[in-house]
Amino acid sequence: MSRTASPTAQDFVPFATAALDFHHALNLPGGPLVTSRAELDALHAHLVSAHGLLDAHAARTGQLVPIEGDHLRAARTRIWQAADHVHAAYHAAPRPDSGDVPEPEACQAGLPEGAPELTICQRHQRAAHLVRRRNTPADLHAPFTGLVRR
Is 57 exposed, middle or buried, given 0-12, 13-18 or 19+ CB atoms closer than 10 A? Predict the structure, then answer.
C-alpha cells in the first residue's frame, strides 16, 4: 500500500491557502474594525472543512504510521477548538440589522439567523457529532491534545 497520492491527483490545498492570504491582504487593512458575522460564518466553514480533511488524514495515516497519525489527530483537535471559538465569536457578534446579540439557546434551533443566509449552527452541530465520536470531553478541553510518540 502506497503512502503517497497518485501523481495525477490535483492538490487544491495550496489554492485554498493562497485564497485566504489574498482575502487577508485585500480586506483587512482597509476593512471594518469589527469582523462581520458573514466573515465569521465563512471562517467557520473553512475550519470545519480543514477539520474534516485532517480527520481523514489522521484515520488513514494513523494505521500505517502511528507517530504521524498522533500528530495529525492533535492538529485535528486544535482545528476543532479553533472552529468552536469562531462559532462562539459569531454568537457574540451583534446582528447586522438590529445590533442584538442572539441568545446561546438560539443555536439549538439550528438557524438563529434564519435560512438561508447563515447556517453556521447547523454546520457546527454536524461537525460536533463527528467530534463527539472521535474525542472525549477531556481531549477537547485539555491544554495538551494527547500522546505524541517519538
Answer: middle
Q: Quote the cell numbers at residue 137.
A: 470531553
Q: Phi and psi (nearest 5°) for 36? A: -75, 160
Give 107-116 pLDDT, tens digit per residue: 666 555 555 4
Looking at residue 103, what DSSP letter applies? Answer: -
In whole angstroms, give the CA distance from residue 53 to residue 117.
25
- Backbone phi, then psi, for 3, in 5-degree steps? -90, -10
Identify the residue with better confidence: 12 or 149.
Answer: 12
What is the separation, in whole angstroms, between the first and last Cα of the chain?
Answer: 23
- pTM: predicted TM-score of the whole model, two decimal places: 0.79
Tell me the backbone φ, ψ of residue 131, rounded to 5 degrees: -60, -45
